[in-house]
Design a protein that fits this description.
With about 325 residues, the protein is mainly α. Helices cover about 35% and strands about 5% of the residues.
């Protein structure tokens, strides 16, 4: 069945991403480890459909603003593309390793601050794809009016780079990178189809249901939990949306950040089950099989200061100061 073959291909690719070698980034700054003071009034991150129309509009405007800002890391492309470049360049150091969750937590924070520099005054938002798993392509996040636009063009399915998003605010956006190439292109999506005859939802929704999230969240230790979360619902959502969400240049699609904020929410909820233990529960291996520790540095390639894992295990620090 095509939908399952696509999923299998994506899961294989997840563990075999290639490095990208385009552009000339600046050298990463020295690591910084700040005191993890507790904030007193954490903000509540919102689900996209729970935000007001004004909040959604402001968020979208700030995302588009990023594409008008110069690169922070000496690329010839934009700040929007910096996030794509960094994520892709570091892919084997941030996927399939213990650092997957804390690194992406920090990455979302850096992105949120960039949106604020573009005038956004709200919070990072998430797409609750588990709640929408029965019919993911009908979710409010895909609205062309106050969302991210819908599926890509399906009229020429065999033509490379032809599945451009046809509605919504990102239809005119030109993206710089694709996989390991400098390849200017439109924002692409390729929603995986439903198979009603087999009872399977579109976007492989049967693999990221609330029941799947509950199964993943039942793992008692960080090592098993983060592996299940990354390889199961996280990976399947990427595969279900497909297009630019497929390769390691997936931050090309602005839905990437709502997806990963949902992943962060699942981790946060898991931590809240036993906060005295799980706030600093971190184990497993890093790149090249090195044992993971809270003192490991999370590289950001100059888009932000490299920081230690331990600085981002709690969302109640003055750095982050948010909850779900």
């Amino acid at each position: 069945m095509t939908i399952l073959k696509n999923l299998a291909v994506f899961l294989t690719a997840l563990s075999a991403f290639a490095d990208v070698s385009v552009g000339t980034p600046v050298a990463a700054p020295l690591a910084e480890s700040l005191p993890r003071a507790t904030c007193t009034n954490p903000v509540l991150r919102k689900e996209w459909s729970a935000a007001t129309a004004a909040e959604r509009s402001s968020y979208i405007s700030a995302v588009l603003c990023l594409a008008t800002k110069p690169s922070r890391i000496n690329l010839s492309t934009t700040l929007y593309d910096d996030f794509v470049y960094v994520h892709n360049s570091l892919t084997d150091r941030i996927h399939g390793v213990a650092q997957f969750l804390p690194w992406h937590r920090y990455f979302i924070h850096v992105y949120e601050q960039a949106l604020k520099d573009c005038g956004y005054t709200g919070v990072a938002m998430y797409w609750n794809w588990a709640a929408d798993s029965a019919a993911p392509s009908a979710a409010k996040v895909w609205s062309p009016v106050d969302g991210f636009g819908g599926n890509g063009n399906q009229s020429t399915p065999d033509v490379p780079f032809s599945k451009c998003v046809t509605d919504g605010p990102f239809t005119g956006l030109t993206l710089a990178y694709y996989n390991t190439e400098v390849r200017p292109h439109c924002l692409m999506r390729d929603f995986q189809p439903a198979h009603p005859e087999a009872g399977l939802q579109d976007m492989i929704g049967f693999q990221f249901t609330p029941e799947i999230v509950a199964e993943v969240s039942a793992y008692p230790d960080f090592s098993s939990f983060h592996g299940a979360l990354e390889s199961r619902p996280h990976a399947v959502v990427h595969a279900g949306v497909s297009g630019d969400m497929g390769p390691a240049t997936s931050p090309n699609d602005p839905i990437f950040f709502l997806h990963h904020t949902m992943v962060d929410r699942i981790w946060w909820l898991w931590q809240q089950q036993n906060p005295s233990v799980r706030t600093n529960d971190f184990s497993g291996t890093e790149y090249a099989g090195v044992a993971a520790t809270l003192d490991d540095l999370m590289p950001m390639m100059g888009i932000a200061t490299d920081r230690k894992v331990g600085d981002f295990m709690s969302t109640s620090t003055t750095d982050l100061c948010y909850k779900y």
